[in-house]
Write a structure and sequence with these properties.
Layout lengths: L1 E4 L1 H11 L12 H11 L2 E2 L9 H9 L5 H10 L3 E5 L3 E5 L3 H23 L7 H11 L2 E2 L18 H11 L3 E7 L2 E6 L6 H5 L4 H16 L4 H8 L4 H10 L4 E6 L8 E6 L16 E3 L10 H8 L21 E5 L2 E11 L4 E9 L7 H18 L3 E4 L8
Parallel strand pairs: 1-8, 13-14
Antiparallel strand pairs: 2-4, 3-4, 5-7, 6-7, 8-9, 10-11, 11-12, 12-13
């Protein structure tokens, strides 16, 4: 039996699973923050700080009492979190580290082959020396092991010791101890990861089952391709095989797409409810999302569920951009209603709003604009600025 899931229900399910249905002003302890990240699975890290860095903004959009110092303590002092890769650099609960050990083993040989093509056959010539320096002298920044005559450039021009640091981090021998001005500080994994997590082992079967089941829990419903892509730990074929082997624990569902079109055949865990009223109604306030928010990570899924097409245009030449360099999506209730271009000028103490675009059929009513202004005031305070300025024509065409 295939269970039909209305678009309304699908949006509510996904928003709830992504932590966007809880009251955004509830008090948030450090324990609560750890639980939030655990429930999300991971929080993407990115260096762009037009308003705030991605990981901080992702958490702030879910709870506006969040403070970055809480996250720093969980990462650098409590060691309840660690930094590694999903589809990109991310902050991950240390509870999941035993499963990541399978990722370390899987990626080592492919990385060696790929990096020997990119960086040359002798790309690993400084590996032993670099590792021993850290073992003997402690944590390092990449610049501290750079040869004096090396000229900086992109990743393809990394100096040999930087290649060693990144290779050993990706394959688990090193870990990120902390960030200094957002630069990674590398140390031996055994000096960063709690011993119980570092030594714990799970079997290959347990690893596959956890990677697929935990992804489906956080997505609410998914195809085997979406299950595979969530953590980027297992292949699409492994996810497909897991679905086949666990059909007695899974439900077949069909997800209604926004705006019509063919329903999306997916799977959900047993106990799944397709009734919208069984899922919380998201808060009606407007929230500014990070361009790297997990709600939008799978652009195609977001477009099917919300009818919202979003692309990051950082690497698009200016004249070819449809919107802007780093434009923020706007969530209102269970709808993605538009996007806004803005930047925090901390020296001037201002949040400078350049342009607002609302989606078709979304009206710039007085109530909606008041909700947007209230959210911008919250974002400004979080970014450490005191005033909001609006460019001429910022709401042109609304």
């Amino acid at each position: 039996m295939v269970i039909p899931v209305s678009n309304k229900a699908a949006r509510r399910i996904f928003l709830a699973r992504q932590g966007l249905s809880a009251p955004p002003s509830r008090a948030l302890s450090k324990t609560d923050l750890l639980r939030m990240i655990h429930d999300l699975g991971f929080v993407q890290v990115d260096s762009i700080s037009t308003v705030e860095r991605a990981h901080n903004q992702i958490l702030f959009s879910r709870n506006q009492t969040f403070r970055p110092e809480q996250l720093r303590q969980l990462l650098e002092e409590d060691r309840a979190l660690f930094e590694h890769w999903t589809h990109d650099a991310a902050i991950v609960p240390c509870d999941f580290y035993p499963y990541w050990k399978h990722k370390f083993r899987r990626c080592e040989e492919p990385m060696r082959k790929r990096w020997s093509k990119w960086h040359g056959e002798d790309f690993d010539k400084a590996f032993g020396e670099t590792y021993q320096r850290i073992a003997d002298n402690g944590a390092v920044l990449a610049r501290e092991v750079k040869q004096a005559d090396h000229k900086s450039g992109g990743w393809w021009q990394w100096h040999p010791s930087k290649k060693a640091l990144e290779f050993y981090w990706h394959t688990g021998r090193l870990a990120i101890s902390r960030r200094q001005n957002f630069q990674k500080v590398y140390d031996l994994a055994e000096r960063v990861i709690p011993a119980a997590r570092l030594t714990a082992e799970v079997s290959h079967t347990e690893f596959i089952d956890w990677a697929c089941r935990s992804a489906l829990e956080r997505l609410g419903f998914a195809t085997h391709g979406e299950i595979s892509a969530f953590w980027d730990l297992v292949s699409p074929q492994e996810a497909k095989d897991w679905v086949s082997a666990n059909r007695d624990q899974l439900l077949e569902v069909e997800i209604e797409c926004e705006g019509g079109g063919k329903p999306r055949a997916s799977f959900a865990l047993a106990g799944f409810s397709a009734e919208p009223d069984d899922w919380p109604e998201p808060p009606g306030r407007i929230r500014v999302l990070s361009p790297f928010d997990p709600l939008l990570r799978d652009r195609n899924r977001a477009e099917r569920l919300f009818g919202f097409r979003y692309r990051i245009e950082v690497f698009v030449p200016g004249p070819k951009r449809e919107y802007g360099y780093y434009v923020f999506p706007l969530l209102e209730g269970d709808r993605l209603i538009g996007r806004i271009d803005m930047k925090a000028d901390r020296k001037a103490g201002t949040l400078n709003v350049t342009r607002l675009w609302l989606e078709p059929k979304v009206r710039a009513s007085a109530g909606r604009m008041a909700r947007l202004e209230a959210e911008l005031a919250r974002v400004a305070r979080f970014a450490g600025v005191s005033e909001i300025t609006y460019a001429d024509g910022w709401n042109e065409g609304l």
